[in-house]
Amino acid sequence: LFHNSLLEYGTRRFYRGRIKAAIFDWGGTVVDCGVCAPILTYVELFREEGVEITEDEARAPMGSKSSVHIAKVLEKEAVAKRWRQAKGGADPTEADVERMVQKFIPQVLSSLQKYSNVIDGVAETVATLRKPPFNLKIGSTTGYPQHVLKILLNASSTQGFTPDASICLSEVPEAKPSPFMLWRCATSLAVFPIEAILKVDDSVNGIHEGLLAGCWTVGIARTSSYVGLTEQQLEEVDSVELTRRMNRAYKHLTNSGAHYVIDTIRDLPLVINDINRRLISGEKP
């Protein structure tokens, strides 16, 4: 049996290059400021079952695929109690979850017609990242299925955002926080090593996706589901309430383990410059 004696001395290969690609989430990161389309759909789905839930209750599991999201909402004791009251004492079942999942996609498609605008600053920032000195490839991942992704791509392309590669849930074995979508996107972009990739997301599950994949992660706070406001509402909300919501977003994203948390996507070039500095000095995610 051949034994490589060099390994006894801890021979390792370190990547000391620069970030080569940024992979973006969609809702709350690129489009749909505040992640309104799926949240309003979940609220309506429960209402159709005779159960009222708040937007905060609907937002809690954001970043999960729809079946997991609905199941997690139903696990909340307050929601489960309202469900039993509406259903004559019956607990929610897997069949209930599946029925709601089947209704989710058609309804969220209707909501996306209203909430598919590219968030302010995305097109300009991505254009900057594609040019020197960054020269990044741009990817995206989403928990939506393929036909919904196509709608998002068509809408965003007319607004200045066209990723080089896009991967959706139906192309991989598991959704976020599993890293399969990110790994497949990296393959489609032909970018390696994983340390040369940055995942940009507004949800805890999306940050965990990046961490499990082994890449750098950045949380976007202001446009996230944890703030939960459209761009117009962000302009109108009073400063005290906005500060409360921003603090909540920073807490969730920081506690998720994100390497960086920033207000908006416009802050991304500064983050990439700092990551490049750390990579050149020998640091890894």
TrEMBL record:
<dbReference type="InterPro" id="IPR006323">
    <property type="entry name" value="Phosphonoacetald_hydro"/>
</dbReference>
<dbReference type="InterPro" id="IPR050155">
    <property type="entry name" value="HAD-like_hydrolase_sf"/>
</dbReference>
<dbReference type="GO" id="GO:0005829">
    <property type="term" value="C:cytosol"/>
</dbReference>
<dbReference type="GO" id="GO:0019700">
    <property type="term" value="P:organic phosphonate catabolic process"/>
</dbReference>
<dbReference type="GO" id="GO:0008967">
    <property type="term" value="F:phosphoglycolate phosphatase activity"/>
</dbReference>
<dbReference type="InterPro" id="IPR036412">
    <property type="entry name" value="HAD-like_sf"/>
</dbReference>
<dbReference type="Pfam" id="PF00702">
    <property type="entry name" value="Hydrolase"/>
</dbReference>
<dbReference type="InterPro" id="IPR023214">
    <property type="entry name" value="HAD_sf"/>
</dbReference>
<protein>
    <submittedName>
        <fullName>Phosphonoacetaldehyde hydrolase-like protein</fullName>
    </submittedName>
</protein>
<dbReference type="GO" id="GO:0006281">
    <property type="term" value="P:DNA repair"/>
</dbReference>
<dbReference type="InterPro" id="IPR023198">
    <property type="entry name" value="PGP-like_dom2"/>
</dbReference>
<dbReference type="GO" id="GO:0050194">
    <property type="term" value="F:phosphonoacetaldehyde hydrolase activity"/>
</dbReference>
<keyword id="KW-0378">Hydrolase</keyword>
